[in-house]
Amino acid sequence: METLFGSGSKSMVAYPLRVVYQKIPREQVNIPVQVLVSVPKKHFKHAVDRNRVKRQVREAYRYCKQPLFEAVPDDQSLLLAFLWLSDELVPSTTVNNRIKHLITRLSEKV
To answer: Which of 74, 73, 79, 76 shows the shortest CA–CA distance to 21?
Structure first.
């Protein structure tokens, strides 16, 4: 987490999500992509709501991750953090579209 949120990290926003990412050498992490999903307690006081949003984000990422894995070079790894920005629950289709949009943009930049 220190590496991801330290210097050299970049971010993009597709409301209600923000993705923070950083490329690192493959020697530090043995897998091509590591993902963190964060839904602040500030936005959702009930754990049920936070868990629902995290589940939506993880499921959307699971469906859309293939282009990202293909775009990451063999000698590098990618650290990702999906941060929730909204105070409202959003339908799964919206979350899927935003994740797909972010992953497409990330694939082009990596």
So the answer is: 79
Express each pLDDT in 6-42 by its tens digit. 888 899 999 999 999 999 898 888 889 999 999 999 9
For residue 76, CA distances in Å to 31, 64, 92 come to 9, 20, 31
How many residues in the chain? 110
pTM of the model: 0.91
In the chain, where the domains are located:
2-109
The domain made up of 2-109 has a fold known as Ribosomal Protein S5; domain 2 (3.30.230)
Q: Do 39 and 54 meet the contact criterion of CB atoms below 8 Å apart?
A: yes
**DSSP one-letter string for 20-46:** EEEEEETTT-SSSEEEEEE--TTT-SS
Q: Which of 98, 12, 32, 87 is nearest to 60 (CA)?
A: 98
Q: Are 89 and 50 in contact (CB under 8 A)?
A: no
With contact defined as beta carbons under 8 Å apart, do 33 and 77 qualify?
yes
